Amino acid sequence: MKHRLILLACVGLILNSQIAILNSQELPQGYFRNPMNIDIGLSATFAEIRTNHFHAGLDIRTGGTEGHPVFAAADGYVAKVSISPWGGGKILYIKHPNSYTSVYMHLSSYEGTIGRAVLKEQYAKQSYSISKLFAPNELPVKKGQIVARSGNSGSSGGPHLHFELRQGGASDLHTHAVTINPLLFGLPYKDNINPTIRGIRIYPTGGTAFDVGANNTVDVDGPFYLGIYATDAAEGSTAKNGPDRVEVLLDGTPFFEYATERFPLDSSRMVNALVDFPYFVTTRQPYLLTRTLPGAKGPWIPTCLGDGVFRLNPGSVHRIGIRVTDIRGNVAERVVTVNVREGATPLEKASGSGEAVRYSLPFEHISDSYFVKLSAYTLYADDRLVIDGKGQTVCINPTINDIPPHQAYSLGIRGTLPGVPEEKTVVVRVTRKSGSVRHTAYKTTHANGFHTAQVRDWGEFTLAADTTAPTVRPVNFSDRKPLKTTVLKLKVGDNLAGVETYRCYLNGKWILAEYDGKTATLVIDGRGKLQAGANRLRVEVTDGTGNTTDLTWRITK
Predict the structure, then answer these.
(1) How far apart are CA 461 and CA 205, in angstroms?
(2) Pairing between β-strand 42-44 and β-strand 436-441 as defined by DSSP bridges
(3) Beta strands 459-465 and 450-455: pairing type?
(4) What is the CATH number that goes with domain 31-185?
(5) Coil, strand or helix at 294
(6) Which pLDDT value is given to residue 345?
(7) How far apart are CA 13 and CA 257, in angstroms?
(8) Average pLDDT value for the chain
(9) Maximum Cα–Cα distance across the chain
(10) Which pLDDT band, with edges at 50, 70 and 90, does 394 fall under?
(11) Does domain 355-465 have CATH number 3.50.50.60?
(12) Closest by alpha carbon to 42, among 328, 331, 332?
């Protein structure tokens, strides 16, 4: 079975060499095995639409429990191990002789020699979070070998195994890599259930969007584009997973086609430009838009007939067909008849106020009290930015496309806070909702009187002080009291800049402590390390502005 990279003749997309090479190769069928010994049921499918990214793999269900054996999908060697309280948590990368890399995320532990190598690296670095590359001869693995245990580490929303198959990439196995739907390699997956088209919206270019609902016929006043919300289900899987493909036909002729069988990881954030982003944030319903923006095109999101906007003659009647397909070829279809009203004169989309910004060029706005600097391709299309600075507050908002920037831009704010040292001052984003105000801090540098951060949001920004040290509170033990457990837990919190580093010492020696970012909990496994009688546990936690809490407990085993 070959890679299905859909190329519509009317698009004329120029493929980069990496994608072209991938398209010319056949995917090896049966080369990779199911990474678990349970039937594949999915809580998330490949390329599901998420905020700021496509889902890059399969989320294999584990019955809500951790500790299931995870098997090497094929012969190869451990090329990398990465551990973080966030993101994929405990991650394992296995490189295979056929140029693919299998990736396993949210693990609870590593098995055998892999686990020992990981523990050795953590103690050598005296850090829970590590990123370690291995040579081909260090940790070889065989297909079917147990390499890890499933878990819920990192930013996981519940126990499962996230599994990917990648090709290409730099030494970090991420940059410039392309991720491919693992189900295309012949993994066993039962799906006899059709997708569901849950909603269709009409977006007039000069008016307000509206839902088609159950109507089979709608009236429009001029140019418009479509939004389509569809989900997929399968035996043993959740009911609202993402589909594989969406096609739109105008009077039987292909007009738009969207396939998600592979994508470059570097481009994942472009997902924000493919959907009605404000509606998605509000409803969690990702309406895929037929309209395309020039800065969000690639061979993995092909479209047809220009920019995906329907420009139909007044007084005409057309049939728009929508076909949604899942990875096993199950189909959902719907036809909507569109009447273009006679003599309608719709308004063109407003050009917006503010400063003109070309998406393909860098942009700078500099004043005495603040500056804003965007690299080329920070936006997905030409736009206008309204930038308003008052005192130590700067508001930055686009007026045409309400989509987050594709990449971070530099924001610098000049000023001092009374009685606050420069290094304790941070740039924060201000979010106002239902009468409450929330501050989200960015890592901030200080030079020439400016406090500078790299931000990937629009909105209101200001300066705030973080002079408060983190909080550290034991959960299942107390000072000078006998222990009832050998696995010690502590809650850690910070008021603004966030926890930056932590170090734990048992009887004067550094000891590994796992930090769960979801629950803000430090877990120290003292088995084999706690000595009979009196012990001293010291925990030192530092936040992003250098405030430190250093506490010691006397505990008795």
Answers:
(1) 31
(2) unpaired
(3) unpaired
(4) 2.70.70.10
(5) helix
(6) 63
(7) 13
(8) 92
(9) 90
(10) very high
(11) no
(12) 328
The helix/strand count (H/E) of the chain reads as 4, 42
Do 275 and 203 meet the contact criterion of CB atoms below 8 Å apart? Answer: no
Pair 227, 143: CB distance under 8 Å? no
- Give the pLDDT confidence of 106-149 residue by residue, as tens digits: 999 999 999 999 999 999 999 999 999 999 999 999 999 999 99
| CA proximity to 303, closest of 391, 200, 375, 226 | 226
Q: How confident is the model at residue 18, as a pLDDT?
A: 36
Average pLDDT over residues 510-536: 95
Length of the chain as a residue count = 557
| Identical fold between 196-340 and 471-556 | yes
Identity of the amino acid at 57:
G
Residues 6+ apart with CB under 8 A from 205: 222, 223, 224, 225, 309, 346, 348, 349
Helix (H), strand (E), coil (C) string for 435-464: CEEEEEECCEEEECCEEEEEECCCEEEEEE
User: Domain 196-340 belongs to what architecture?
Assistant: Sandwich (2.60)
Let me know: does 513 contact 523? Beta carbons within 8 Å.
Answer: yes
Contact by Cβ (8 Å): 333, 319: no
CATH code of the domain made up of 471-556: 2.60.40.1220
Q: Which residue has the tokens 């997956």?
A: 189
- For the chain, the domains span 31-185, 196-340, 355-465, 471-556
Distance, in Å, from the CA atom of 328 to the CA atom of 511, rounded to the nearest integer, reads: 49
Q: What is the C-alpha to C-alpha distance for residues 335 and 323, in angstroms, rounded to an integer?
A: 9
- Least Cα distance to 22 among 163, 169, 143 occurs for 169
The one-letter amino acid at 180: I
22 φ/ψ angles, rounded to the nearest 5 degrees: -60, -40
The residue among 294, 298, 224 whose CA lies nearest residue 258 is: 298
Q: What is d(CA 272, CA 251) in angstroms, rounded to the nearest whole number?
A: 29
Give the distance from CA 186 to its chain's centroid. 26
